[in-house]
């Protein structure tokens, strides 16, 4: 049954924000006390600080420390309502957004729409790789990767076949951007420092960590010099860096790549594979552009916007962050934050002061950074390059500033302090659900397609497979 569109009582201008990531949350916060009603809708119940996901995956932080709930963050903001639902439909002409939570539908009518649904992992047309090599975009992904990393060592400990032991102790990370570099550094530290004395039948020091990328260097956006320094540091940590190489296959057994220089194909056996090599904007962008004549999403699904960050001919639809294509701006937290704040100011100015002309968005580059190991980070701010301990201190200061919530900042600082001094990590718990959940859900969806089982039964009540032991094909 179709639901009736809802809007808050009182008849104020209604701003609907899709996504409570960096763009959406900072837009909502900027609208606190504005003379508007705000509804922020997200498929998760938390605001995720994605740049620290790799620390959850490698046991430095726990998930709660980087993902406070959206309701808690906005609890004092009286003009704002939080809706937890996955947006499945946006009707540009009717100005409605339809969300779904386990078969329950909510339809919201907007006066202004802020699209901030971010991006997902892209496997460049090889979506089947995802079964064997999870990306890192969500808490679920980070916990699955943690379970795969720790699971590899556990399996190696009880394996007698030397070749299989070697496969289990080989970790392949695809994509040498900041996430890949940070992960590779952390897996190396786990193998050589954290887990060193914890196993009896394997030498964790012998673990092979490979970082593979199609570019000629690691950290391409940081430039040649910083890329070289980061690579040198990684190699010192025991990471094997493979550049100029395109991954051509990922399966349960391992990874194959082809050198772009020599055309030579190399296959490496590996149990734990991680994908950090590409992003595609939320499909909601394409859903919206398909309804508007003359506007097309780009190849990565990003929506082109004008200087006021709206879609041509639709002054009421703003797009910010990883979903927008504007001025070749990169997919960075600061781009999303500044975009979110800018559009909130535009809406506020028009509703409260009756402004008729719109300013142009101007991005202030605050720099990019990546941590390679304990006490070593690379930072690029305009033409300035900072490396090593000073870079690490800057990284620390920036992450403390932007982590949401005093408690989270306090706990993260405490964890980083402890982690710097001690080889131990206190967040390495891994469960079967974390390891298998994503692939089981994928199998359930396949069953749903093959047998016509209603999605609400699968997703909400998990009727399919209930009580049966469903093993995913990866294990
Ligand atoms: C592992 C990793 C490391 C990173 N490291 C850095 C870094 O060091 N520095 C940096 O500047 N940037 C970094 N980034 C990039 C940065 O996190 C993004 O640019 C930023 O999060 C984009 O903000 P956004 O608001 O556009 O999207 P997001 O922050 O991704 O938020 C999107 C929100 O929309 C919600 N959503 C999506 N689809 C739907 C739907 N259909 N219905 C309802 N809700 C939906 C999601 O649940 C999410 O809450 C990193 C990203 C990742 C994944």
Structural class assignment? alpha/beta
Runs with pLDDT <50, length 5+? 460-475
| Net shape | globular
Task: State the share of residues found in helices, binned by percent.
Answer: 25-40%
- Got a strand count? 23
Question: What topology, given as strand order, has the largest sheet?
Answer: 3-2-1-7-19-18
Structure description:
This protein has 14 helices and 23 strands. The protein is an alpha/beta fold. Among the domains are: 13-43 and 85-121 and 280-353, FAD/NAD(P)-binding domain (3-Layer(bba) Sandwich); 127-276, FAD/NAD(P)-binding domain (3-Layer(bba) Sandwich), CATH 3.50.50. The longest helix is centred in the C-terminal third of the chain and has 21 residues, at 333-353. Bound molecules: flavin-adenine dinucleotide. Flavin-adenine dinucleotide binds at residues 18-24, 41-44, 48, 50-51, 53, 86-87, 116-118, 136-137, 178-179, 282, 284, 321-323, 331-334, 336. Belongs to the NADH dehydrogenase family. Keywords: FAD, Flavoprotein, NAD, Oxidoreductase. One of its GO terms (molecular function) is NADH dehydrogenase (quinone) (non-electrogenic) activity. It catalyses: a quinone + NADH + H(+) = a quinol + NAD(+).
């Amino acid at each position: 049954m179709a639901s009736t569109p809802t809007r808050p009582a009182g008849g104020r201008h209604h701003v609907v924000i899709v996504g409570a990531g960096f763009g959406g949350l900072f837009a909502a916060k900027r609208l606190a006390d504005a003379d508007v009603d705000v509804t922020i809708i997200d498929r998760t119940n938390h605001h995720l600080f994605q740049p620290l996901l790799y620390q959850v995956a490698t046991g430095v932080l726990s998930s709660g420390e980087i993902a406070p709930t959206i309701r808690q963050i906005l609890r004092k903001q009286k003009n704002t309502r939080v809706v937890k639902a996955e947006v499945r439909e946006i009707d540009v002409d009717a100005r409605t957004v339809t969300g779904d939570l386990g078969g329950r539908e909510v339809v919201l009518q907007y006066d202004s729409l802020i699209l901030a649904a971010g991006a997902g992992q892209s496997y460049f047309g090889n979506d089947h790789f995802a079964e064997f090599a999870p990306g890192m975009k969500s808490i679920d992904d980070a916990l699955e990767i943690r379970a795969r990393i720790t699971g590899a060592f556990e399996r190696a400990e009880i394996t007698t076949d030397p070749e299989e032991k070697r496969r289990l102790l080989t970790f392949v990370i695809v994509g040498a951007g900041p996430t890949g570099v940070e992960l590779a550094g952390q897996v190396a530290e786990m193998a050589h420092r954290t887990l060193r004395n914890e196993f009896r039948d394997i030498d964790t020091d012998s673990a092979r960590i490979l970082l593979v990328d199609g570019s000629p260097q690691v950290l391409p956006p940081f430039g040649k010099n910083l890329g070289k320094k980061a690579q040198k540091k990684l190699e010192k940590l025991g990471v094997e860096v493979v550049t100029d190489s395109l991954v051509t296959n990922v399966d349960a057994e391992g990874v194959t790549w082809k050198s772009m220089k020599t055309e030579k194909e190399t296959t490496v056996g590996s149990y734990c594979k991680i994908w950090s090599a590409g992003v595609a904007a939320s499909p909601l962008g394409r859903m919206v552009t398909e309804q508007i004549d003359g506007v097309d999403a780009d190849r990565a699904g990003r929506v082109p916007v004008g200087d006021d960050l709206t879609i041509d001919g639709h002054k009421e639809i703003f797009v910010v962050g990883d979903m927008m294509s504007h001025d070749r701006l990169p997919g960075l937290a600061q781009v999303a934050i500044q975009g979110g704040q800018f559009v909130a100011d535009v809406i506020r100015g028009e509703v409260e002061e009756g402004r008729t002309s719109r300013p142009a968005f101007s991005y202030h580059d605050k720099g990019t950074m990546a941590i390679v190991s304990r006490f070593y980070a690379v930072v690029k701010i305009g033409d300035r390059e900072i490396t090593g301990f000073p870079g690490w201190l800057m990284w620390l200061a920036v992450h403390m500033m932007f982590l949401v919530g005093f408690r989270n900042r306090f706990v993260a600082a405490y964890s980083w302090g402890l982690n710097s001094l001690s080889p131990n990590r206190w967040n390495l718990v891994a469960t079967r659900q974390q390891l298998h959940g994503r692939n089981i859900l994928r199998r359930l969806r396949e069953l749903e397609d093959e047998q016509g089982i209603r999605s609400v039964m699968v997703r909400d009540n998990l009727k399919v497979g209930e009580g049966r032991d469903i093993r995913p094909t990866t294990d």
